Amino acid sequence: MAIRAAAVHLPRRSLQVSEALAGGLLRPQDHAASGYEALPAAEPGDTPEAFAVEAARLALELAATRPSAIRLLIHTWLHRPAHPFWSPAHHIADRLGAGRALPLSVQQMSNGSAAALHTAAAWLTADPETGPVLITAADTFVPPGFDRWRGDIMLYGDAGCAAVIDLPAPGRDDLQLMALASTAAPHLEAVHRAGRRPGDTGAPHPRETRRRFLTEHDAETFRSAAQAGAAEAIRTALRHAGLDHGGPAPRMVLLPRVGARTLAALYRPVLERLLPGVPCLDLGQHTGHLGAGDLLANLAAFPAATCSLPPGEHALILNGGGGFTWTCAVFRRPAPTCPSHRPTDTKAQT
């Protein structure tokens, strides 16, 4: 699959972690555990769907793709502070002017972007005329429905993310998705449910449900299952990309934006064992955890100097989400083509 473009829309307001600590909003131990400096925060009246639309417009512009060319729009989210009896995907398509798109919603907790990417790749394989596909992810973690500072063991930022993908086209040098592998551990689903009554529709309190779960189960069992799931996704993706038998190591791994403590406990030990010496980057210092959007936000970072991917090189994005599910994606930057021989792609013209 070809990644035509990826983009992130962040609200203008940025909450400083140091100020939250000084004001008593953030516990000192959580400050030390995150390693993050600032969180983008929605203003009153902002909606995650509006953020998704802004990110999508930017991604479509970067991909030189008209909204009317989109055939499939997949939207995902972790937390929406709004009524549930509604289709955000259809709203986003309408706001964009993507009237020919089939809107679809996919949810897999914080792994939503990965699930959407799986869905898009499978759909394009089954029906090549589906492309281009637009994926959007957006969340806002605003009070009173969510406490971004104390509600969980990680810190949450508000954002919209988007990516445009399609089948590879001759003469283009789009980033290539070489492999995508996921694993799951359904026996951990109660981590985000423990202690809550059936049918409880109250505000989420992931720190409390996790605490309840760990009082009934061994913490080491959870850690081992998470490491095993991440390791299996990484090994499978490397094998599918042909990078598992002494070939060149990936240039980098981009990590889920879940904070230093979680990364150290669940993911860095796995990567140090499977990919020793490969730089593993946490890009969440000024975003925090972006809910379902971490993978797309990391994908959008590849053009940045800190994540530059030279032609012929590979990079991995590792992601995970409650339930639990883990995904590893392998991307490759192809050798550039000569502009004079670049064919016209009628689907991607503005």
From TrEMBL:
- The membrane-spanning stretches of this chain are none
One Gene Ontology term from the biological process aspect of the record: secondary metabolite biosynthetic process
Give GO terms: molecular function aspect only.
acyltransferase activity
Q: Which organism is it from?
A: [Actinomadura] parvosata subsp. kistnae
Stated name of the protein:
3-oxoacyl-ACP synthase
**Family matches, as InterPro entries:** Thiolase-like
